[in-house]
Specification:
Blueprint (H helix, E strand, L loop, with lengths): L1 H20 L6 E5 L41 H8 L16 H4 L2 E3 L9 H6 L5 H19 L1 H10 L1 E5 L2 H8 L6 H4 L2 H21 L4 E5 L8 H5 L10 H24 L4 E5 L2 H9 L49 H14 L6
Parallel strand pairs: 1-2, 1-3, 3-4, 4-5
Helix pairs in contact: 2-13, 5-6, 9-11
The structure holds 2-acetamido-2-deoxy-beta-D-glucopyranose.
Length: 350
């Protein structure tokens, strides 16, 4: 009798131990652009696609999924580190259902931005629309888990936002007579930060509490931008990097402000800038051979449909390259950045 009781006690302690080791976070919920799109664009009419070879050639099964990389993206690694699934499925992918999305889902869309005018450029999913999909997700989650359990998932999930690069490189600096004729670069940053603020407030209003707002990478160092910088020996475009740092400063201030204003929120600014720049400046110390051109095709300008299987120049081993296509990191870079973000930024949630 005593023995039985003792082993029950041991078992219950063991179960408590398991639940503390296992994820405090029940789900990873993702909004953003191609940095975190796991295939939503495969299901909308746009040319911003990557669901063909050689994209995904190092993904499980060598399968292109719509991720803009040779393998997994940062959010896949983050999900795994949280004790959840090793990949985060796209909400529009009919191969997945609410039972999958209940632990991880991406509403992101490649080529989108904070600004509606950015998503218009390639007819992708606007940022505001991602929140509409999220509302639909909440309804489905309540049907699947029941009201109580769903509310618990909604408030304890980690929400990750990664967006903004396209507002500058695909829109502001690329569309003549567009936003650049309306706003100075500094005004445009304020405009975008305002959209970020209202998005976070709405997400909070819908029940989110643990939110990571992502900063911009050193976008002047993407091979595509370097290619245009011939006059300076294809160095990083310094002015773009400065804009990224300025904008990150604004997001950092926004995060501090909202943490004071919104009761119970845990909002974290997740800055990939310095770790990414460190990789680009010291590729060899991470095992990379090449940082200024990408693996796919000539590595100078190709992405999306221009990065395809017919290209003879594509590199053999993407692990030697920081960039997979002219705009997106390789799986290996994604993993290094994700590890850094998990250890240095998201640790309060783990
Ligand atoms: C973007 O478009 C949506 C839908 O038309 C609209 O509700 C929203 O206010 C727009 N955002 C901005 C910042 O203009």
């Amino acid at each position: 009798m005593g023995n039985k009781y003792g082993s029950w006690l041991l078992l219950s302690q063991f179960l408590v131990l398991i639940t503390t080791i296992q994820a405090k976070i029940p789900a990873l919920i993702v909004f953003g652009d191609s940095s975190v799109d796991s295939g939503n664009n495969d299901y909308i009419p746009t040319v911003a696609r990557s669901n063909f070879e050689p994209y995904g050639r190092d993904f499980q099964g060598g399968r292109p999924t719509g991720r803009f990389s040779n393998g997994r993206i940062a959010t896949d690694f983050i999900s795994e580190a949280l004790g959840l699934k090793p990949t985060v499925p796209a909400y529009l992918d009919p191969a997945y259902g609410i039972s999958d999305f209940a632990v991880g889902v991406s509403f992101a869309s490649a080529a989108t931005g904070y600004d509606n005018a950015t998503s218009d450029v390639l007819s992708v999913i606007p940022f505001w629309k991602q929140l509409e999909y999220y509302k639909d997700y909440q309804r489905r989650l309540k049907g699947y888990l029941g009201e109580n359990k769903a509310s618990q998932t909604i408030s304890e999930a980690l929400y990750l936002i990664s967006i903004g690069t396209n507002d500058f490189v695909e829109n502001y600096y690329a569309v003549p007579g567009g936003r650049s004729s309306e706003y100075s670069i500094s005004q445009y940053q304020i405009f975008l930060a305002g959209i970020a603020e209202s998005f976070v407030r709405k997400l909070y209003g819908l029940g989110a509490r643990k939110i990571s707002l992502g900063g911009l990478p050193p976008m002047g160092c993407m091979p595509l931008e370097r290619t245009t910088n011939m006059m300076n020996g294809n160095e990083c475009v310094e002015s773009y990097n400065i804009v990224a740092m300025d904008f990150n400063g604004k997001l950092y201030n926004l995060v501090n402000k909202l943490n004071k204003e919104l009761p119970g929120v845990q909002l974290i600014f997740s800055n990939p800038y310095y770790v990414f720049l460190h990789i680009i400046r010291n590729p060899a110390s991470y095992g990379f051979d090449e940082t200024s051109v990408a693996c796919c095709a000539t590595g100078m300008f190709e992405m999306g449909y221009a990065c395809n299987r017919n290209n003879l120049f594509t590199c053999a081993n993407a692990d030697k390259y920081v960039f997979w296509d002219s705009f997106h990191p390789t799986q290996k870079t994604n993993q290094i950045i994700a590890n850094y973000i998990v250890k240095r930024v998201l640790y309060p949630f783990i």
